[in-house]
Specification:
Pseudouridine synthase, 3 domains, Archaeosine Trna-guanine Transglycosylase, Chain: A, domain 4, ten-stranded mixed beta sheet, elongated, single chain, five-stranded mixed beta sheet, alpha+beta
């Protein structure tokens, strides 16, 4: 079985566990996702099957959109509601002050990832260090918050909901924590849904509970849907055979071979996506990134 399934990951399940369930239903050993979601989070999780798993790494750098519920007056060691409570403070914040804070965090910002994250420090994941009670200095990273939209203002529990569009590497838990620090009362992430990722909207995703061994194949679409944003080159049958056999394609034998160094390209023969190539301008050829289908 080969292709792409757009999963709406349920709450309380790790991305790894969700993939393991799909692996069982599809009876396919090669299954992989792109863009891990925390267990408490729900939403868009693209999952690849078969040779299409080679595309997983190509989607990690793409922008994402989330709907987040944030609670003021509370901080935790994980920066979300599942963690150990560190502080509780009274909240005396208005919606006007909240909206001002959201504007402050719009644009390019420096962000410190959560201690409970999969980032590695000296070869060890931060969450492994955190579970051992160890604290280390975490290097800030520059991320971009394209837009924050307030969906609902403060309720009686001092929680609010936002929709936020972000660049790769942005932690919404860190954003919640930093908003709380800015307002002086602390905050933690209460709920999170990834509503858009890798070009796919949550409306196009299927719930895990709706899948079974008999119908899962109906929800697997062509892996090409994940890379439609890449330019494509259509090759002859002879070139297709060469590419599938591991051979590079010379620029001089391709039409309109005006590529930039490292540019990723869909390599197709008629309507068949053979794989992904990349432009090696120094050697004037399209080299192989991955092969997905054979003639």
């Amino acid at each position: 079985m080969q292709g792409l399934l757009l999963l709406n990951k349920p709450q309380g399940l790790t991305s790894f566990s969700a993939v393991a369930r799909l692996r069982y239903l599809a009876k396919e050993k090669r299954v992989g996702h792109t863009g891990t979601l925390d267990p408490m989070a729900t939403g868009v999780l693209p999952v690849f099957f078969g040779r299409a798993t080679a595309l997983s790494g190509l989607l990690l750098d793409q922008d994402k959109r989330y709907v987040a519920q944030i609670k003021l007056g509370l901080t935790t060691d994980t920066d979300d509601i599942t963690g150990k409570i560190l502080t509780e403070k009274a909240v005396n914040i208005t919606n006007t002050q909240l909206e001002s804070a959201l504007k402050y965090f719009t644009g390019k910002i420096s962000q410190i990832p959560p201690m409970y994250s999969a980032i590695k420090k000296d070869g060890v994941r931060l969450y492994e260090l955190a579970r051992k009670g160890k604290s280390v200095e975490i290097t800030p990273r520059e991320v971009e918050i394209y837009e924050i939209r307030l969906l609902s203002g403060l309720d009686e529990n001092y929680s609010f909901k936002i929709e936020v569009s972000v660049s790769k590497g942005t932690y919404i838990r860190s954003l919640a924590r930093d908003i709380g620090e800015y307002l002086g009362c602390g905050a933690t992430l209460k709920g999170l849904e990834r509503s858009y990722a890798a070009g796919f909207d949550i409306e196009n995703c299927v719930k895990l509970e709706d899948l079974n061994e008999d119908n899962i194949s109906e929800y697997i679409i062509s892996e090409e849907n994940a890379v439609v944003g890449l330019d494509n080159i259509n090759v002859t049958e002879k070139q297709a055979v060469r590419f599938c056999n591991g051979g590079q394609l010379g620029f001089d034998r391709l039409k309109n071979a005006d590529f930039s160094q490292g540019q990723l390209l869909r390599v197709k023969h008629n309507d068949l996506l053979l794989g992904i190539g990349y432009a090696d301008c120094q050697n004037q050829q399209v080299a192989i990134k991955c092969i997905l289908n054979y003639l």
